[in-house]
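This part of the workshop introduces the protein records we will be handling. As an example, a complete record with its sequence and its structure tokens follows.
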Amino acid sequence: MMRLKFSLVVTCFNEMKSLPQWYKDLEAQTRQPDEIIIVDNESTDGTGQFLRSWAERDPRLKLIIQKCSIARGHNIGNEAAKYEHIVSTDMGIRIDPRWFEEIVRPFEEDLSVEVVAGSYAVDMGTVKTAAARAEYYVKGDQTPILKPGFIISNRSSAYKKEVWRQLGGFPEDLTRCAEDSVFGRQIVQKGYKMAFAPQAKVYWARHAKLKDFWKETKGYGIGDGEAHIKTPMAFRLYEKGILPRFLVPPLTALRLFSVQIRRVNFWLAIKRADFVALAFIPLLLLGNGWYFAKGYLIGDERGKRECRACRSRLSGGSGHMGLPGKLQEVPFEQLS
């Protein structure tokens, strides 16, 4: 089996709260990156100082400090990478010790592989409050099912640099979110050879308060609205002139509630006598639907003006892909 070299590319902004542990997790990897490139969006909380100190003692680390979006940061980092294979994850997460070894393995076992989809799950150590437990009863640990048509996440993925070049990099006209969702959809649409690494797992923290879940969901809504993906059913009716704009948030909230409530693990919550978390579930779902739709409306308005390049990447510009056997775009309510 041929041994290849890999560049780990990461973006960050004000990650000092979790950076020391993230650094320890990376140092504990059973296989180390051959190169580490971190693009810091001019952090103000001490992140930059920590990274500069690390770079002084580790020749593998190339630190780039530049004011930029997440998409721009990934493009800058990928361009600076000296190796053909790019590995991606996020800061602010926990990394399994075998993550790097597992995510690069498919490339070395089969040189024709162009993209590797790693796995991820919720960091159960952060599921402590009633709001976080409520989400857990609805979504479980959120480990994805890795199968054909899977959309990679920057949280745990790897790809050849040539793939990134051919797809035009990450879409820089998006404000903040959805850059990897668009990039991943392009990968599926173009039919690149993808392998799956279910043991290449990272763990992402969940929030303590309902308002933080809603803020996160609104941000996702803005990004998805800009890219015109994961379109809520009510928004589709609004686009067709069937539904007034003001009804999109409440109807999306009700639709999400009706779909997701059937997935709730009531038995586990009752077994634990976790009645407070059970009471939070309707608030969580209704709020998530409402704020995603509010964000989607904001994002769509901006997307029409400023994200045409991003939208044109997907299925000839429609943003909704129907690719039999590969990827079928479904509404936000079904994906959450």
Observations:
- The CA atoms of residues 114 and 193 lie 5 Å apart.
- Residues 210-335 form one domain.
- Residues 275-306 form the longest helix (32 residues).
- The mean pLDDT is 93.
